Amino acid sequence: MRLLPLAALFTLAFSLSFGQAPSAPRSNNAVERLRAMPPDERRKALEKLPPDRRKQAEARMEELDRMSPEERGELARRYDSFQRLSAADQEKARKLFRDLNDLPGDRREALRLAIGHIHEMSSAERTGFLGSAEARSRYNRKERTLLQDYVALLEAPSR
Amino acid sequence: MEHCAACQELRSAQRLVWDSLDSWEASDTGWEFNQRLQERLRQEGRPAWMDSVSTWREGISWKPAVPLAAALALWLMVFPPNGFNSSKPSAPQQPDQLEKVLEDVQMLQQLPLGRR
Fold this sequence. Notes:
The complex is a heterodimer of chains A (159) and B (116).
Chain A: H1 4-18, H2 30-36, H3 39-46, H4 51-66, H5 69-84, H6 87-102, H7 105-120, H8 123-130, H9 133-138, H10 141-155
Chain B: H1 5-23, H2 30-44, H3 48-58, H4 65-78, H5 95-110
């Protein structure tokens, strides 16, 4: 009988710790977690933002919802790679993205294509491409710097 | 009786026996003896495994276990094991955090990172 309070305490602790059996497996990836957020939870989280930022965030959420499972899977894989970068490298990636968006439309598109090609290259091919006459003729100094920054991010060590 | 020597002798012998019996003090068996006797009698009627349990329990002090168990229970309440808690991981709940993740997601749509 003396052990009864102890048993009760254990029962309480275990019911709190283990009692909530997961109804469905939940992803660790932020992309899937965002998509799985119930509408009222999304609304509650976004309603505290200023109207213009809220509108932009809602549009991004909707874009995410419209993606195919394959597109979302690829995005989730990229997000995982991004999360494995150091905080400083993550910030460099954000700055690179801002700088790319500041370029004029046609140049932005040219660099977007170059980035796609560079992503598919091996490490040696990237180095060769950046130092090539072709790259110097196609991209100005600032653009080449942006491409070099992108290559540095691809080669950056993961945490 | 006064004229019967044999009867006197018998009476004397009888008195000696009575006096001896009256002067004899029985040794006190004591409480411990009685307890042991009763325990022994109880043991006769129970299975052998119960003896092992009794011996094991007698060798254990539960007193130090109580605070340890309470501490363990408290620990489980405060830090529940990850694999069993469905509320983790959760989506970012803070608006700023959510906005930042969405910005990163948009960036990654256009900026492929990671190995091929």
